[in-house]
Design a protein that fits this description.
single chain; alpha/beta; 3-stranded antiparallel sheet; binds nicotinamide-adenine-dinucleotide
Length: 315
Amino acid sequence: MKSGNKIVIVGAGSVGISFAYQVLSSSIAQELVIIDIDKDKVEGEILDLNHGIALVDAPMKIYSGNYSDCQDADIVVITAGRGQRNGESRLDLINSNAKIIKNIVTSIKKYNFNGILLVASNPVDILTNIAWKYSGLDKSKVIGSGTSLDTARMRYLISEITNISTKNVHSYILGEHGDSEFPVWSNTQIYGKTLDEFIKDNKEFNHNVFESIFISVKNAAYDVIRLKGATNLAIGLVLVKLCKYILQDENYLVPVSALCEGEYGLNNIHIGVPCILNRNGIRNIVEFNLTNVEYNNLKNSSKNLASIIEKINLD
Ligand code: NAD
């Protein structure tokens, strides 16, 4: 019998454990279960995490488990599968990770899991689509981290260059979490001003400055992987925030990978779009008033993903 919020993590690698550490320090769950094919790694991580329990604000149970632990979980977070190697794109991971996700989700389904499935493994939009298909869950309950990390990177970089708090920078990256993602400049706001108004008021900035920020965002994962081998810390925080919006029923707007069925004129595709998250998962997709250029970027990104999904053989 569980007490309080229960999260299961599948995948105890650098992303899964970064997330687990943030769950421990944020007290968003009272029970945390970790599953991985590498049993020694899980046991070691569990020992290490449990040694921190006396130091956090609320009591918590952290233990290694198996798929039967998903039965009464509120959220299962999938961080299993390998990450990009230096120079690889996220789409290069499809052959290694698609079958892993199918097998994991099939195992979870056996235990009638009916909570929220949050996918972080890459290529995240495609793997979220596979997870949804094999989970039997409603589309509102299967969420990919999508472009939420890219959006956090963008807000940070805009804040750095303008010297305005990240809290007063609203700017979204949509589309594939990958090379075809794009910025939505048309609804970017810096201290309440549109980007055009901000540039008019601050002559040292122009549109090229912001375009170069976006290029840095797009290349961020390549840069981090080149320098330290993997990206894991910021994504850990992003996953905790997404869980918090869900568990605390926040109705918070964030771009995640969601199934589009008519929204933005897209159909049958998981892609990064603005969504309101609450205790039920995705309450709804919000349709921004995109410019023609932005809309075409979204359409092209979606076509790109669809052409890859078509070719996947999971048998
Ligand atoms: P990692 O290699 O450190 O860890 C992967 C873990 O998955 C390993 O512990 C491995 O044993 C486990 N695993 C493999 N197959 C499994 C299975 N069938 N069942 C259970 N566990 C299994 O990799 P990482 O750096 O933690 O990255 C994990 C994934 O997250 C990658 O696909 C990476 O690209 C992705 N990622 C996503 C984002 C994002 O923004 N969505 C950011 C960073 C990384």
